[in-house]
Design brief:
The protein is α/β, with parallel strands linked by helices. It folds into two domains: 238 residues, Rossmann fold (3-Layer(aba) Sandwich), CATH 3.40.50; 59 residues, CBS domain Like (Alpha-Beta Complex). The chain has 14 helices and 14 strands. The strands form three sheets. The protein has a six-stranded mixed β-sheet, sandwiched between helices. A four-stranded antiparallel β-sheet has the order 2-1-4-5, with helices on one face. A four-stranded mixed β-sheet has the order 11-14-13-12. Strand 12, helix 13 and strand 13 form a beta-alpha-beta unit. The longest helix has 18 residues. The two termini are 23 Å apart. The model has no long low-confidence stretch (mean pLDDT 92). The structure holds adenosine-5'-triphosphate and magnesium ion.
Length: 311
């Protein structure tokens, strides 16, 4: 859907992004991660032409992006970022409705969509008429995400969208983005500093350093087949084991047809949380139930140690 071919961007004669080739598949959630100043935001902004590339080629749906009108392109791509605030004099409703209004949606349709998004992001209707200065930082950030989602864009670009949030709200919104992604199959490109957030969300992970892509692939590939010491160090050698666990689900490893006593855990729980359960309960095996709370099987502590690539 989006293709970068040897793309380079210079600022004052210095390359901020060098020779980047990247293929973003339709429906995939791609996470750009890397050290500060490695060129992640620049790469993201080249997708919707907030920044114009100097060399190479970027295409969207097969079309060279320079040939698409920049404003038309931006309307097809939701964009949420940490630092750029909302329009300060506009109400929450008007902020969220920015793109739908540009697209000429009816008042009823806009109003219904705003209600839907407020609920989705865990805010009630009383927020509708507030202005940005009457919101906490985290609430503003959620409105920013709602605004990006408002017109059901083909692509969602997110630059550290949860940066200002506390860990609990952050985890909720991460789950929300994962859910939106699964339900709508929308193409998402997300920039983050947070390794665990990246591993949780990414179908495809792109690690950058000094303007270049160091390695790209699935989270499992980057963790188990790091291309260099830089990659290994970036993901933290010491935490590698638990990080690998966070990629898999209990259902993948549960032995079906067995059963045991105790409070069951969900098949959808990730293996890292399951490890905590084993430790806190001091048990060697735990019963597992499916989404309908029906018995599915048993997870054995020893099976956790084997490790298995998530499907
Ligand atoms: N408008 C600009 N003018 C000049 N240099 C810039 C500009 N924007 C970015 N840069 C430089 O380009 C490089 C890449 O910046 P970029 O914002 O893409 O990094 P980043 O990976 O998003 O970093 P961070 O994680 O800190 O947000 C940096 O060295 C930065 O100083
Ligand atoms: Mg950045």
């Amino acid at each position: 859907m989006i293709q970068f071919d040897k793309v380079t961007k210079y600022y004052q004669g210095r390359a901020a992004v060098s020779d980047v080739s990247l293929h973003i598949e339709k429906g995939e959630l791609t996470v750009l991660i890397g050290t500060s100043g490695s060129g992640k935001s620049t790469t993201l902004k080249m997708i919707n032409r907030l920044v114009e590339h100097d060399e190479g080629r970027i295409t969207f749906g097969g079309e060279e992006i320079r040939r698409i009108d920049a404003r038309a392109l931006r309307r097809r791509m939701g964009y949420a970022i940490q630092s750029i605030g909302l329009f300060p004099h506009w109400t929450v409703e008007k902020n969220i409705a920015t793109v739908p209004a540009l697209l000429g949606w009816s008042r009823e349709k806009i109003s219904a969509r705003v209600s839907e998004l407020l609920i989705l992001l865990g805010l009630d209707d009383s927020f509708r008429q507030r202005r940005p200065h009457q919101l906490s930082g985290g609430q503003q950030q959620r409105i920013g995400v709602a605004r990006a989602l408002a017109a059901d864009p083909e692509v969602l670009l997110m630059d550290e969208p949860f940066g200002a949030l506390d860990p609990v709200t952050r985890a909720t919104l991460q789950q929300e983005v994962a859910r939106i992604h699964q339900l709508s199959g929308r193409t998402i490109v997300l920039v983050t500093h947070d390794i665990d957030e990246a591993l949780f969300l990414a179908d495809k992970l792109v690690l950058m350093d000094e303007g270049r892509i160091v390695q790209q692939g699935t989270p499992w590939q980057l963790l188990t087949q790091p291309a260099s010491d830089f990659v290994r160090d970036f993901f933290g050698r010491a935490e590698l084991g638990v990080r690998l666990l966070s990629l898999g689900q209990v259902g993948d490893l549960a032995r079906q047809g067995e059963w045991t006593d105790g409070e069951p855990i969900a098949a959808s729980m990730n293996l890292r949380e399951a490890l905590s359960q084993f430790i806190s309960r001091q048990q060697e095996s735990l019963p597992v139930v499916d989404n309908q709370q029906q018995p599915l099987g048993v997870l054995w502590f020893n099976d956790l140690l084997r490790g298995k690539e998530p499907q």
